[in-house]
Amino acid sequence: MWFRKASFWASGGTALLIIGGIASGLPVRADQQGSKPPQKKPTAKAPAAKPANPGALVFQKQCAGCHGAKGEGTAVYTRPLTGDLSVDQLAKYISQNMPPSGKKCSVPDSQKVAAYIHEAFYSPIAQERIRPARVSLSRLTVAQYRNALFDLVGLFQPMPGIEKERGLKGEYFKSRHYRNEDRVMDRVDPQIAFDFGDKGPIPDKFDPHQFSIYWGGCLIAPDTGVYEFVVRTEHAMKLWLNSDEKPLIDAWVKSGNDNEYRASRYLVGGRIYPIRLEFSKSTQGVDDSDKKKDKPAPKASISLSWKRPKLAEEPIPARCLLPQWSPPNYVVNSPFPPDDRSMGYERGNSISKAWDEATTTGALETAGFMAENLKRFAGSDDDVEKVKAFCRKFVERALRRPLDPEIEKRYITQQFATTKDLKIAVKRVVLLTLKSPLFLYREVGLDPNDSYAVASRLSFALWDSIPDEQLLNSAKAGLLQTREQIQDHAKRMLADPRAWNKQRDFFLQWLKVDQYPDLAKDSKKYPEFTSTVAADLRTSLELTLQSIVQSEKSDFRELLLGDKVYLNGRLAKIYGVSLPEDAPFQPVALEPNERAGVLTHPYILSSFAYVKSSSPIHRGVLLARNVFGRRLLPPQDAFTPLSPDLHPNLTTRERVALQTKPTACMSCHSLINPLGFTLERFDAIGRFRTTENGKPVDASGSYEPSGGKLVKFNGAREIAQYAANSTEAQNAFVEKLFQYLIKQPIRAYGATTQTKLKQTFKESGYNMQRLVVEIATEAALPRTK
Hints:
Number of strands: 20
Number of helices: 26
Mean pLDDT: 87
Low-confidence stretches: 1-38, 285-290
Helix content: 25-40%
Largest sheet: 7 strands, antiparallel
């Protein structure tokens, strides 16, 4: 079995997974790697002893006390010796900083020990030799679990595609009744934000005393989480969301003077949900004197807003509304513990009691929902054969493979044999299926060359969800065996909105804003920077990313060098662009000689800044870790940044240089600071500046690539230009995207995989969409046993 090679052990019901990565210790001997141990030769004379490695002698004498005999770490210094410095960079660091106290290591000894450390357990080759990476058996991540259930339940009802037109379909009636004979007009409204005053929607066609409007369509949820919906109106209204039965907000019968109504709902990001809003202005329950011709009609208005998870309230924008119909969709509400992200991406590499309980709760919740809606999904709630057919399809698609007789007997036949109550039988089938390792784990029990395993790997890579019918049909027909066959499906699946939703989440994580950083700023210094502005900036970044990544070229270099940013009228006023105050989001140029791509987007710059000032350290860490892929150790001691109030005459650059001056700090800050300083022409809200505290802003900086020479820059555009064409940055992007999509280490797919993907990336003109296809294809290919 392939997964016997996946380093999986079970003990006491808990899976222990070895993902690969960096191991400590000296090189593994050939006999430890599985080779046949050398046979003793029948010679009388023993071979001459190999001279001791001079670097090893220095290490054992001067370094092992803190770092361990095999570089594994000790109580003094707990981290293993790993990293991405070249031999020369490592030697320079050792000569300047080691040991931390006392006489420093000499330059000659530093060169010797650096060469030894790098060859023994520091370099990528050494890491692979010490602990080869493995494709590990993994459970579904939380996102994959929620997406899989959404799509699994959605199989049993029609699912419309997403059309280009945006907004909600409005049906306008000249009475308070929704009767066809009273319908005046139909149209698509981009947003629900109307102030009719004491008139009707069209004064000469509507009685201002009474009219009604019915808005219907779908809502697209950008994020996964709890959304708060807000309706404001002086008159009667009802709001339905993802339900045909119970309104989310019911204010049809009003009491008191309340004009604002709120309710919350948990939604899965990237999916569509039916939404319906009914509004009625009438004299029902009002003094008849209001209807007198000589008396003005009461005023009427209505607006529909939302608060996305961790963002400020805003009118629901047109891009998130569709005028088409959709049935209600299933969302599991059970809370889950977060997935492990210690490797930089979510991994399903461990099982906890909390996770096991969450899957049980989710299975119970889903089983109850399916049983209560049995007639809707199975076409009948009393026809045994129809219900069994529904269960067979449910189990087959949940387990992502055809059912063999043993599975069908265990999961379906036996459950119906023990009860005559069809709903109870269905609940048992659903519970057994959703708690099965065959559902919760990606490819348990499958040969890696099996076509259904290929289909599963491809669908989870691109969608974080189960295969669709077209993919399973190809698996059944044996048409998922060659690279070309798999690649054709990957290209098809890339057009599905689920693919962009997963990519969007990657780019937000790559830029370290996936957790919604707190963008609160000092109200005295930045009075214009409100929570609404912060929410607008988030939208601006998402639109900017989508416009570049989903373009025909999808050029990685444009992501770092593009001169267009999406702004609306509110943001334009703050960032020096001339747009009408009510202008919708549109691409505009901001300081083309200074800004460059997403790294200088105001949202990113605001996120990596303090309340009152910029933060070269945070911005430098973003560049070092995420753009160039460098490994940085966490600070040995927590520290508080120097307040601008303590040194009012210093610039931010000068304060940072002062605080990080100690030798212990400069081991990392010699890399971080010069990168962060290149973004110093942008203040705490990402606004361009040339002076700070009456002094010219110094945006000069530098970067020493691993194994390369020091490169100097002046300003953001120069560092962005370098990064866009840097092999180091391109390699880092390929690796991070691979690991996010596949949720496994790239080294586990072969020593040459990253090199091949990087070459393909280059040949495509650094097309990010094609890179996604290549990564998904590479990971889905049949594997050797």
